[in-house]
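Example (one chain per record):
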Amino acid sequence: MVSSRSVTKNEPEEPTLRLAVLIDADNARAAVIEALLAEIARFGEATVKRIYGDFTASASSSWKKVLQKYAIKPVQQFAYTTGKNATDSALIIDAMDLLYTRKFDGFCLITSDSDFTGLAMRLREEGLMVLGFGEKKTPDAFRNACHKFVFTEILHSSLTSESAEQLPEIKAKKKSTKNKSATKVIEQKLQFPEEFVLTALEQSVDDTGWASLGVFGSYLTKLQPDFDSRLYGFKKLSDLVKAKKDLFEVEERQTSGSNRKILYLRAKILTPT
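Predicted structure:
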């Protein structure tokens, strides 16, 4: 007698984007590298990881400690002339060389320097995804030249909080206090852009007046590449939408032929009192 078996249908995996990660050591912090690579993994696979700088200088000593651990290839650039940045030139030349191999789907540029704005624009012209990572001081020109820009202060805050959870209670309290203060600084500086978000939602809705969370999130990023729900205290966009009950109505809908649910939202209709 042949025993019946339950056959599980495997859904095909989405193709992973091949990403080239290029780090400007002069304008990036080694303290966030672990959280940075984890963030990049959300978008695709870092098939190339290179960092550019003068590693004989004391300013780059923190980077030397993490290069081997995270398999990042250093590209040494000596500062032959004061005031001239050879690091920028080397990174841009390598980026163009990698571009013409046609092996990559996107580039991750880790820098707070607006000198890479032209590079980001050039890569986009070739149809590649450009992800930017830098501090809040990064000029708007570079941030808007990327498809998506992530503030490294957010990554540093999340990394600090995760580390605190693994420490003894006394040490964890100290770490937690530092983390809260760091997060508080970000939150105090940024006011939730209610008008911008509602305008983006208005452009995202279908004929019924509802928009799926995916479409809404994609449109937000297109309009403002550095928009990030974590800047306003929410880990995910879905958490932000659900929390802003004064702005949004939400509902979950079952997708046909699947157990997966999709979140839909629309602007809350204010009733006159």
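Caption: Residues 1-12, 161-188 have pLDDT under 50 and may be disordered.
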